[in-house]
Amino acid sequence: LISRNVNVQLPSHRYEVRIQPGLLESVGDFVKKLPGVSSIVIVSDSNVADLYGKPLLESLARRDLEANLLSFQAGEQHKTLSTCSEMFDRLFSLEPALDRSSLLITLGGGVPGDLGGFLAATALRGIRFLQCPTSLLAAVDASTGGKTGVDHAAGKNLIGAFHQPVGVLIDPLCLKSLPSEEFKSGLAECVKHAVIRSADLMELLESRRKQMLCLDPEAMTELIAANVQIKADVVVADEREQSLRAILNYGHTFGHAFETLMGYGQVTHGQAVAWGMLAANCVAVSRGLLDEAAADRVARLLGALGLSTRPGKFEIDDIWARMLHDKKTRSGRVMLILPSAIGSAEIFNDLSREEVARAMEKLWGE
Amino acid sequence: LISRNVNVQLPSHRYEVRIQPGLLESVGDFVKKLPGVSSIVIVSDSNVADLYGKPLLESLARRDLEANLLSFQAGEQHKTLSTCSEMFDRLFSLEPALDRSSLLITLGGGVPGDLGGFLAATALRGIRFLQCPTSLLAAVDASTGGKTGVDHAAGKNLIGAFHQPVGVLIDPLCLKSLPSEEFKSGLAECVKHAVIRSADLMELLESRRKQMLCLDPEAMTELIAANVQIKADVVVADEREQSLRAILNYGHTFGHAFETLMGYGQVTHGQAVAWGMLAANCVAVSRGLLDEAAADRVARLLGALGLSTRPGKFEIDDIWARMLHDKKTRSGRVMLILPSAIGSAEIFNDLSREEVARAMEKLWGE
Question: Which of A15, A33, B135, B238 shows the smallest number of beta carbons within 10 Å?
Answer without folding.
Answer: A33
